[in-house]
């Protein structure tokens, strides 16, 4: 079943991101509070009240930090709403897009008229409480692989070895996204960086530098989905879901040790573009999930903006700023705006919505009509990411 143009986003909200440094006057809030703040912002943006969400739908991105087993009903209780349809997505950085697709299905089926999609996390308040998967506990940590950065360092090293990718190429992604974050009032980093700053930044897990990866923060975001017909009645600038694709537990070529430089984003993007009836050349901007700069570069290749292995050259020769040929992560992405735990997947999605609403402020893309957003998550043993999703959003059906 095609979802093209059958559902739309009529309101969105995003909190400021913070490191919860009380000595600097930053708030130290719980993820419950971020859920509530994000919902309030989305309702205000949509011109709705909480009554408009009662007996409707609720899609929750599962938080990373310590949480109750039945987090969905706890969120509904704290918001003070009854739901007639509820899901909790546990797709890592892909969760926001999966929530959007599931909400569109629920609205299109007639189960509910509207769905609040919400994400919030507070790793700086609670600390690292995520449980290790068995493969990490048994086969990685004992041998010195200390978390996601160590794993992605192996992927980045392979890409460099296989295709000749250079630090200056991934560095351009970091520098450009920081330029965008400077123009984003919600971003955690508001000071520009140079290529020299990037190249001299601390090595975290060679070849990944400090400026290649995200900064963990507290924060939350939300958006409201309804039918396209209702959206045109209540919202002057609805953002339509035109295409969606998902490809999880992806194997590239072989189910043995495949090429770790390829992701399921390629297949997901092809499915999304087919549903939307568009080609890559129609896309005005790209908001790719960006836990690491090399992840951005690999997705550019997998989507087909260039040949596999030519991502470095493509980035080098293409203006990826908000003024350029292919604007990328115009809010700074998670690398410069911040990664609020497992709510991070909605950072790129919210920026895509914002651009299509014409509300990007100083970083607004000219004539933004069609955008592609990606989500990836869950690092797998012997491969790269387990969850891959792509959404195509537009201002017209």
Summarize the structure.
Helix content is 36%, strand content 19%. With 397 residues, it is an alpha/beta fold.
Provide a descriptive summary of the structure in words:
The protein is built from 14 helices and eleven strands. The strands form two sheets. It has a nine-stranded mixed sheet, with helices on both faces. Strands 5-6 form a two-stranded antiparallel ribbon. Helix 7 packs across helix 11, helix 7 (167-182) crosses helix 12 (311-317) and helix 10 (265-276) crosses helix 11 (293-303). 36% of the residues lie in helices and 19% in strands. It is an alpha/beta fold.
Helix-strand layout with pairing:
Layout: E1 7-14, H1 31-46, E2 56-61, H2 71-79, E3 83-89, H3 95-109, E4 114-121, H4 123-126, H5 134-140, H6 148-163, H7 167-182, H8 195-199, E5 203-205, E6 208-209, E7 219-227, H9 228-234, E8 239-246, H10 265-276, E9 285-287, H11 293-303, H12 311-317, H13 333-337, H14 345-356, E10 370-379, E11 385-394
């Amino acid at each position: 079943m095609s979802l093209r143009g059958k559902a739309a986003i009529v309101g969105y909200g995003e909190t400021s991101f913070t490191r919860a440094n009380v000595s600097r006057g930053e708030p130290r809030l719980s993820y419950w509070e971020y859920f509530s703040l994000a919902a309030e912002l989305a309702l205000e943006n949509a011109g709705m009240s909480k009554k408009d969400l009662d007996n409707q739908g609720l899609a929750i991105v599962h938080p990373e930090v310590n949480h109750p087993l039945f987090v969905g009903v706890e969120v509904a209780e704290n918001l003070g709403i009854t739901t007639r349809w509820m899901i909790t997505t546990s797709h890592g950085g892909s969760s926001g897009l999966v929530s959007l697709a599931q909400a569109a299905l629920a609205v299109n089926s007639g189960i509910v008229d509207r769905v609040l999609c919400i994400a919030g996390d507070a790793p700086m308040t609670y600390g690292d409480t995520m449980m290790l998967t068995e493969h990490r506990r048994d086969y990685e940590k004992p041998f010195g692989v200390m978390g996601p950065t160590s794993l992605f360092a192996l992927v980045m090293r392979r890409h460099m070895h296989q295709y000749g990718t250079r630090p200056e190429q991934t560095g351009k992604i970091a520098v450009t996204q920081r330029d965008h974050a400077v123009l984003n009032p919600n971003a955690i980093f508001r000071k520009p960086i140079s290529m020299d700053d990037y190249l001299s930044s601390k090595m975290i897990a060679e070849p990944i530098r400090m400026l290649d990866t995200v900064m963990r923060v507290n924060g939350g975001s939300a958006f409201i989905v309804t039918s396209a017909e209702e959206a045109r009645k209540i919202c002057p600038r609805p953002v339509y879901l035109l295409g969606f694709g998902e490809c999880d537990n992806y194997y590239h070529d072989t189910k043995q040790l495949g090429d770790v430089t390829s992701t399921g984003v390629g297949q997901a993007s092809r499915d999304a573009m087919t549903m939307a009836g568009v080609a890559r050349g129609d896309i005005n901007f790209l908001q790719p999930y960006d836990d690491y700069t090399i992840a951005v570069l690999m997705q550019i290749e997998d989507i087909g903006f260039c040949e596999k292995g030519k991502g470095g050259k493509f980035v080098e020769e293409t203006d990826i700023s908000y003024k350029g040929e292919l604007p990328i992560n115009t809010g700074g992405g998670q690398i410069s705006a911040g990664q609020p735990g497992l709510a991070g997947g909605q950072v790129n999605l919210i920026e895509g919505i914002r651009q299509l609403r014409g509300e990007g402020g100083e970083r607004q893309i000219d004539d933004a009509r069609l955008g592609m957003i990606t989500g990836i998550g869950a690092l797998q043993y012997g491969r790269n990411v387990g969850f891959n999703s792509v959404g195509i959003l537009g201002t017209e059906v």
